[in-house]
Write a structure and sequence with these properties.
The complex is a heterodimer. Chain A is about 35% helix and about 30% strand. Chain A has a six-stranded mixed sheet, with helices on both faces. In chain A, strands 2-1-4-5 form a four-stranded antiparallel sheet, with helices on one face. In chain A, a hairpin with a 2-residue loop joins strand 4 and strand 5. In chain A, helix 5 runs parallel beside helix 6. Chain A is globular, with a radius of gyration of 18 Å. Chain A starts with a strand and ends in an 8-residue tail after the last helix. By secondary structure, chain B is of the alpha/beta class. Chain B has two domains: about 300 residues, no CATH class; about 55 residues, no CATH class. In chain B, the strands form three sheets. In chain B, strands 5, 6, 8, 9, 11, 12, 14, 16, 17, 19, 21 and 23 form a twelve-stranded mixed sheet that branches. In chain B, a hairpin with a 2-residue loop joins strand 3 and strand 4. The longest helix of chain B has 17 residues. Classes of the chains: A alpha/beta, B alpha/beta. Chains A and B meet through helix 2, strand 7 and helix 3 of A and helix 1, helix 10 and helix 11 of B.
C-alpha cells in the first residue's frame, strides 16, 4: 500500500502527552497540510515521524507502505524514503554541503557500490539551478552562517537530491521573505508528483497559496479536529483558530 | 568522509592489527643495564664516542625521576625491567623490496608502503622493531647530494655532517625519555639536504612494532642546509598485544638560514602503546619549520613538538590534531622558544575526546624581554563527544618586552544530539554522523596535509568514530 499511515498515535515528552491520538493517511501523489496554533503538537509530530530520540511513542502505529517504522532508527527511516525538512536546520561546521549530501546519497547505495562523482555533481548542479542557488554554495559548511532563506533552500535541495517517498516539511515558510518563499515553494512544487506524498506543517495559510494542498487538516491539542480541502485553509485564515477551538468539546477536567 | 561500506570498514579496522611470529637474530633480552648498551653498541659496531654517549645517557635516565609531578601517573605503569630494548635481524637495510624477508615484506605491503613509494615518495625507510629492513632513496634525489640513512650509518659514514648536531637540539638530559632514547636508540632517519636543494617529493619513514614487550627507540635528525627544502613524513602502527609496548623517539631538526622543513606525523598506535616522544627543531635566520602532528591511538601519548627560533625572522608552526578514544590519553601540545627579533610562531591544536578519552593541551610560548617584533598566535579547540569525555588546556605563555605581540584563543565545543539527529535524518548512521562532524571539526587543518595523508587521516578518524558508538 503506497501511503504513510499514522494510527491513533500518542506521544510523550517526559510525562507530558503532546500528541494525543492522531490518525492520518498521506498517500503518495498527494499533498496534505496540517495547520494549527502554536503548541498544538505539529512540530512534535514531524520529529516523531523522523525518529527523534527525545520523544516517546506511548501507543499507536506509523506504517510506511505497510511497514511499521517506529522501531527503526532515524537513519533507517530516511534510507527507506522518509524525509524531514527541518524548521530549524542544524549547522555542521567544517562539513561542506557537497560532502554532506554526497554522504547522504552514498548511504542509499548498496554495499560496495560507489557514487559516480561526475553524475552526482551534474545532478546536484541541476537541482541547485532550479532553486536559484549559486554554485559556490556547495563548498560552504552546512547551514553555517546561512540566512533563513538559504537554510530552507538547502533543505529543499536535500529533498530534491534524496528523492523521498514521503516528505514532511516542518514550517518551511517560517523566516522566509516573499522572494525566498516563492523560490522554496517553486522547488517543492517541482518535486510534487505521483511518487511522493507530502505533509506540509504550517501555522499560516500563506504557504498554501504557493503550494496548493489536496487536503487540509487542523490540529489542536495533539489531535486532528477538522479536515477538508484547500478551502478549509482560507476559512481558517478568515476566522482564526478560535473558531475551531470553540467547536471542540473539551473533556471535563482538562 | 565516510564513504566506505560497512564491510570495508571491518577489514580496514584491523589494518595494523596483525603480527608475524618472531625470529630475531639479535635480541638484547629483557631489562636495561650497561650490558644492554654494550650489546647494542656491539651489534651495531659503533664508534667509542657513541658507546660512551649511550652509557652516560643511561646514567641520566636512571637518575631522573618520572615527570609525574606534572604528567599522568599512568607513566608508573611502565615496567622498564620487563621491556626488550633491541630486536633485529642485523644491520643491513635492503634497497629492494625483493630482498626484504618475506614476513616483513608482507607486513609493509599490507600497510601499503611499497605502493605509496611508487606513487608519490622520494624515499622510504621501513623500520621493523629496532632496525630498518628497507631503505631506498630515488636516484635523482640521491644524485642531488641528499643523504637519507639510519643513525648508525649516519654517525659512522657522515660524522662530519651529523656529529655536530646529534644530541644538540635535544640533549640526553632534556627529560627522562630523551635520556632513555639516547641510551638505546636504534633505527630512525638521518637526513641531510645540501644548500639550495629542494626535495620535491616527501621522504617517508614507517615505524612498525611487531614484537610484544618491546620498546622502539628510533632517532631522527634532519639537517636542511641553507635555502634547502624538505618534507618528511612518518607513520607508525603496532598490533594489539596484551602487554604494554613502549615507543620513545627523539627527533631533532635543524633548519639553516632560509631553509624549510615540514615534518608530518600520522600515528595510529594500538591502545596499549606508551608513546613518549621528544621533538624539537632549531630554526636559523629566515628559516621555517612546520610540525604537522596527528595523534590517534596509543594508551598515553606525551608529545610537544617545539621550535627554537634562533635566527632573525625565523618562523615556527605546530599544527596538531589529537583524537583520544575511550581509555586513551593524548597529552600533546607545542613549544615555541623565541630567541631572536622578528620571529613568528603559530600553534593550532584541535583535540577530540570520545567516551572516557582525555585530551590535554600543553603549550609553552616564550618571548624574552630584549626581543622586538616577535609574534605568536595560539589557537586550541577541543571537541567533546560524550559527557564522560575530558579535555584540559594548560597554556603557558610568557611574553616580555613592549614590541612583541601574542594572541591566544581557545574553545570547547560538543556535538549536539540535534546535530546528530539532523544528519541521521539524511540517512547517515550515528557513527557516520559522528565521523563527519569530527572530520568537519578538523577539516581546516587536514586541508594543509598532502593529499595522500589527508585521505589516510580521514579514514582513521572514520574508523575511530565507527567504533565509538553503540
Amino acid at each position: 500500500m503506497s501511503s504513510l499511515v499514522i494510527k491513533d498515535l500518542h506521544v510523550n515528552i517526559g510525562d507530558k502527552e503532546i500528541v494525543r491520538g492522531l490518525s492520518l493517511e498521506v498517500e503518495r501523489g498527494k499533498v496534505h497540510a496540517i495547520m494549527g496554533p502554536n503548541g498544538s503538537g505539529k512540530s512534535t509530530l514531524a520529529k516523531v515521524l523522523g525518529g527523534h530520540p527525545d520523544y516517546t511513542v506511548t501507543s499507536g502505529e506509523v506504517l510506511m507502505d505497510g511497514e511499521d517504522i517506529l522501531a527503526l532508527a532515524p537513519d533507517a527511516r530516511s534510507r527507506k524514503g522518509l524525509f524531514l525538512a527541518f524548521q530549524y536546520p542544524m549547522e555542521i561546521p567544517g562539513v561542506s554541503i557537497a560532502n554532506f549530501l554526497r554522504a547522504a546519497v552514498q548511504s542509499r547505495l548498496a554495499d560496495g557500490e560507489e557514487l559516480e562523482a561526475t553524475e552526482y555533481y551534474a545532478r546536484l548542479y541541476e537541482k541547485m539551478d532550479a532553486l536559484e542557488m549559486p554554485r559556490n554554495f556547495t563548498s560552504r559548511s552546512v547551514n553555517e552562517g546561512f540566512s533563513g532563506g538559504e537554510k530552507k533552500r538547502n533543505e529543499i535541495l536535500q529533498m530534491a537530491m534524496l528523492n523521498p517517498k514521503y516528505a514532511i516539511l516542518d514550517e518551511t515558510d517560517s523566516g522566509l521573505d516573499i522572494d525566498a518563499l516563492r523560490i522554496v515553494s517553486g522547488g517543492v512544487n517541482k518535486l510534487r508528483g505521483p511518487e511522493v506524498g507530502i505533509l506540509l506543517i504550517t501555522h499560516y495559510q500563506r504557504l498554501l497559496d504557493y503550494i496548493v494542498p489536496d487536503y487540509v487538516h487542523v490540529m489542536v491539542e495533539g489531535r486532528i479536529v477538522m479536515s477538508g480541502d484547500k478551502d478549509l485553509a482560507l476559512q481558517l485564515e478568515e476566522k482564526g483558530y478560535d473558531w475551531v477551538k470553540e467547536g471542540l468539546q473539551e473533556p471535563a477536567g482538562v | 568522509m565516510s564513504t566506505e561500506t560497512a564491510s570495508n570498514l571491518n577489514i580496514d579496522r584491523s589494518i595494523g592489527d596483525f603480527s608475524y611470529p618472531e625470529s630475531h637474530q639479535y635480541d638484547a633480552g629483557v631489562g636495561l643495564t650497561h650490558d644492554t648498551i654494550d650489546y647494542i653498541a656491539g651489534v651495531k659496531g659503533e664508534a667509542d664516542w657513541v658507546r660512551e654517549y649511550r652509557h652516560k645517557a643511561l646514567d641520566i635516565f636512571t637518575s631522573k625521576p618520572m615527570p609525574t609531578h606534572w604528567a599522568s601517573h599512568d607513566l608508573d605503569a611502565i615496567v622498564f625491567d620487563n621491556i626488550r630494548y633491541y630486536l633485529s635481524n642485523g644491520q643491513k637495510a635492503n634497497r629492494s623490496w625483493d630482498d626484504v624477508p618475506e614476513d616483513m615484506k608482507r607486513t609493509f605491503e599490507r600497510l601499503g608502503i611499497p605502493e605509496q613509494e611508487r606513487r608519490f615518495l622520494a624515499g622510504v625507510e621501513a623500520q621493523f622493531d629496532s632496525e630498518a629492513v628497507y631503505s631506498n632513496i630515488k636516484k635523482a634525489v640521491g644524485d642531488q647530494g641528499v643523504i637519507f640513512v639510519g643513525p648508525t650509518e649516519g654517525l659512522r659514514d657522515h660524522p662530519e655532517i651529523f656529529k655536530k648536531w646529534f644530541g644538540k637540539v635535544i640533549p640526553a638530559g632534556d627529560n627522562k625519555f630523551s635520556a632513555l632514547n639516547s641510551a638505546v636508540f636504534s633505527g630512525g632517519s638521518f637526513i641531510y639536504v645540501p644548500p639550495g636543494v629542494k626535495v620535491k617529493h616527501p621522504l617517508q619513514a614507517y615505524f612498525r612494532i611487531n614484537a610484544e614487550n618491546f620498546g622502539q627507540f628510533e632517532r631522527t635528525l634532519i639537517i636542511a642546509d641553507e635555502g634547502s627544502e624538505v618534507m618528511y613524513m612518518e607513520g607508525c602502527t603496532a598490533p594489539k598485544f596484551e602487554t604494554a609496548t613502549l615507543h620513545s623517539a627523539v627527533v631533532e631538526l635543524v633548519a639553516m638560514k632560509g631553509a624549510k622543513i615540514q615534518y608530518i606525523t600520522v600515528q595510529n598506535w594500538s591502545a596499549n602503546v606508551f608513546n613518549l616522544v621528544t621533538k624539537r627543531a632549531v630554526a636559523h635566520e629566515e628559516a621555517e619549520v612546520k610540525w604537522i602532528d596527528c595523534n590517534i591511538g596509543s594508551r598515553l601519548t606525551m608529545k610537544y613538538p617545539g621550535v627554537v627560533l634562533k635566527g632573525r625572522k625565523a618562523r615556527g608552526e605546530v599544527i596538531s590534531i589529537a583524537l583520544a578514544n575511550d581509555g586513551q590519553h593524548q597529552d600533546t601540545g607545542a613549544k615555541m622558544i623565541h630567541a631572536a627579533d622578528e620571529t613568528t610562531s603559530n600553534i593550532i591544536s584541535k583535540s577530540i575526546s570520545v567516551g572516557k578519552g582525555r585530551a590535554t593541551y600543553r603549550g609553552l610560548v616564550h618571548v624574552p624581554k630584549h626581543l622586538k617584533g616577535c609574534k605568536n598566535n595560539t589557537e586550541c579547540d577541543a571537541l567533546l563527544i560524550n559527557s564522560t569525555s575530558r579535555t584540559d588546556t594548560y597554556p603557558a605563555i610568557t611574553v616580555r618586552g613592549t614590541g612583541n605581540a601574542v594572541q591566544h584563543e581557545a574553545s570547547v565545543s560538543q556535538i549536539s544530539a540535534e546535530q546528530i539527529f539532523y544528519m541521521q535524518q539524511r540517512g547517515l548512521t550515528e557513527g557516520q554522523a559522528m565521523s563527519l562532524s569530527v572530520n568537519g571539526f578538523v577539516n581546516d587543518l587536514v586541508r594543509q596535509f598532502p593529499m595522500e595523508y589527508s585521505v589516510e587521516l580521514k579514514r582513521l578518524i572514520d574508523l575511530e568514530m565507527e567504533g565509538s558508538v553503540g
